[in-house]
Design brief:
This protein is α+β, with helices and mostly antiparallel strands. It contains 10 helices and 14 strands. The chain has a 5-stranded mixed β-sheet with strand order 7-10-11-12-14. A 4-stranded antiparallel β-sheet has the order 4-6-5-13. The two termini are 37 Å apart.
């Protein structure tokens, strides 16, 4: 439980001369990657404009602009994001994070680590516990809709090379959806879908001292659960995407867009299952993805015609 204390109201700060605009409001003309990240903040009562505002939570005070809030939300929603995808770095020092990210790191809201994505040296950005606590403290009251989940730190270091691709795939998908008048409302990672699936499988085992943990669901019940959650079910197996986008079309109807990152290790039955899943696939370009202190995944890449490439 992260809301140990109630967040105190934020205070308006005078707009900075080089930014202008009113704090606490969505800036006009926002588009591109910023618009996609803005979708992750819609249930947060935090600054959305260009000026920085004082924000107090859990006995600490911060000054945040809308851009910085979007950076925090993106890092939290995807667990880990390459710094260059959040804010442009200085061309003179491309491997150094932008001043915005350095400022958030100095405030203890994010942490960064050096990494290589494809052939590009970068730094990965992730929320700290304090950063996640701040976002959780400023959630708007629950309106009965599923809300965006935020995470701190890396969950599976072995999956880091794969997970660094998720945010870029999201930006591409969000841009395509926006051109059709579809708005992203929430991002759901595979781990969250997997937790929901496991809760369903184990529901009848809860509270039973004689349970050995074996799921007590038959194939028909599992297939029905998959249909209800708009997930493919083949060969007694529910396929889960890397990222699910819950969206809203012009008429307010729910639209689901499932994304899968295709990496060189996809082969055999696993590759075939993903191919028939119907997920929108993005191919991770580059034969090797490696990070500091770890080895990358090798192997032959898939045909570029099968999925849109991401760097």
């Amino acid at each position: 439980m992260f809301r140990e204390t109630e967040a105190r109201p934020r205070e308006r700060e005078q707009a900075e001369p080089d930014r202008g605009g009113r704090g606490g409001m969505t800036p006009s003309g926002i588009d591109g990657p910023e618009a996609a990240r803005d979708a992750l903040t819609h249930d947060l009562d935090l600054p959305r404009g260009r000026s920085r505002e004082r924000v107090q939570a859990h006995g600490r005070e911060y000054r945040l602009s809308g851009s910085e809030v979007r950076t925090l939300a993106a890092a939290g929603a995807f667990r880990v994001v390459p710094a260059g995808e959040l804010t442009p770095s200085d061309t003179r020092t491309p491997t150094r994070p932008s001043r915005e990210i350095e400022r958030l790191e100095s405030a203890g809201l994010v942490k960064t680590t050096p990494y290589i994505v494809g052939r590009t040296r970068t730094r990965l950005v992730m929320l700290t516990d304090r950063g996640r606590e701040l976002l959780e403290a400023y959630r708007r009251p629950d309106q009965g809709q599923a809300r965006q989940a935020f995470y701190a730190g890396v969950a599976k270091p072995k999956e880091l090379a794969h997970d660094t691709r998720l945010h870029q795939a999201y930006l591409k998908a969000a841009e395509r959806l926006s051109s059709r008048g579809v708005r992203v409302r929430r991002v759901v990672l595979e781990d969250e879908l997997k937790r929901d699936y496991q809760r369903f499988l184990q529901a009848q085992n809860r509270g039973r001292s004689d349970s050995d943990g074996t799921p007590m669901r038959d194939a028909e019940a599992i297939a029905e659960w998959a249909r209800a959650h708009q997930l493919p079910y083949h060969d007694d197996h529910v396929n889960l995407p890397d990222v699910r986008l819950e969206c809203e079309d012009r008429d307010g109807r729910l639209v689901i867009e499932d994304l899968e990152i295709v990496t060189p290790h996809y082969r055999g039955a696993h590759a075939a299952a993903k191919a028939r899943s119907g997920f929108t696939r993005y191919r991770a370009a580059g034969a090797r993805v490696s990070g500091a202190g770890g080895s990358g995944r090798g192997g032959r890449g898939r045909d570029a015609r099968l999925a849109e490439a991401i760097d």
